[in-house]
Amino acid sequence: MSAASETNVTLRVLIEGRVQGVGYRAWVVNAARKVSLFGWVRNLTDGSVEALVHGPFEAVEQFVADCQAGPYMAKVTAVIKESVDEKVPEGPFQQRPTADRQG
Questions:
Q1: For residue 62, what is the domain's CATH number?
Q2: 96 assigned to active site
Q3: Which of 3, 6, 51, 67 is the most buried (most CB within 10 A)?
Q4: Catalytically annotated residue among 30, 33, 42, 43
């Protein structure tokens, strides 16, 4: 196992495209829980989806790559990731209510 795979990272991920009304959030929750990542996902009022994800570097990077495809009905046009220093809730990855887009 490489040092990178043992290092935990936290990313804010913004997914744009046809990602609301297609089961995208539920898909994200399942994808994150499969690889034991922590965090949350929510719709934003501008039509995008935002996730905060925390876990081993390689698992987080694979999760972000998987977000490009998403569920069958989704049409992802962009996945934007940003490293953040934000506390992630403990416990299973969760779905949160819709929020306004920040900044």
A1: 3.30.70.100
A2: no
A3: 51
A4: 43
